[in-house]
Amino acid sequence: MSKQSKTSSIDHGRRGFLKTASVGAGAALAISVLPSLGRAEDLPHLQVTDPTAQALGYVEDTAQVDDKKYPNHKTTQDCANCKFYQGTGGEYGPCQLFPGKSVHMKGWCSAHADKA
Ligand code: SF4
């Protein structure tokens, strides 16, 4: 075997190893992330005392909204019909505006936007 073909063989083997290692690492990452996605409704509930929740006037019941403070609020608006809500059943579900937390399906905040 010539020196050049031996080097090429080593490079090919190294590339194969790196390709296999990266696929393995990707699979391990996917496996570690999947269980948390499967329990999205089990996320901690967003507290009305959370500073961001307070800034957006979040409440767990749309009927409790202070209409003087939020005159554009409608009682028909709630998290379940907001485009940022990602719940798929159950009382609580994830909201894109509050990553890592879940909001009540009957809740509301001033960022509410009707689902299309
Ligand atoms: S953005 Fe929508 S889903 Fe999220 S808390 Fe506000 S009203 Fe609820």
Protein described:
The chain is mainly alpha-helical and 116 residues long. It has two domains: 1-38; 41-116, High-Potential Iron-Sulfur Protein, Chain A. 35% of the residues lie in helices and 5% in strands. The chain has helices spanning 3-38, 51-55, and strands at 92-94, 102-104. Strands 1-2 form a two-stranded antiparallel sheet. Strand 1 (92-94) and strand 2 (102-104) form a beta hairpin. The relative contact order is 0.16. Bound molecules: iron/sulfur cluster (SF4). The site of iron/sulfur cluster has 13 residues, from loops.
Keywords:
mainly alpha; High-Potential Iron-Sulfur Protein, Chain A; 2 domains; two-stranded antiparallel sheet; 2 helices; globular; binds iron/sulfur cluster
